[in-house]
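#structure-requests
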Amino acid sequence: MDVDNSDRHNLSPLRHIEAVLFDLDDTILDRERSFSLYCDYVINVIFPDDMPAKEKSGAKEFLIENDKHGYESRERFYKKIIDHWHLPLRSIIFYLCGIRIIITI
């Protein structure tokens, strides 16, 4: 059997991984706080300055409720955002930690 090693250099950073941690009970990462900050970010991207604070609070509650503690698929979650605010989008582009994330519905 022939093995193609042409991509082996692309995987070189993986050689240094010694462990993978799964935070299933939020003991390492405070997901509630992290997601709350993410909601603020999303609201400010969609509605930069034209939404009163009270409406932003309601929008944040909508996002938190529909996230279902991370158990809602991202596709459904973002579709709910688009549908709820009647956004003329078929895809949403976010920059998270310098990484471009494109969600296409």
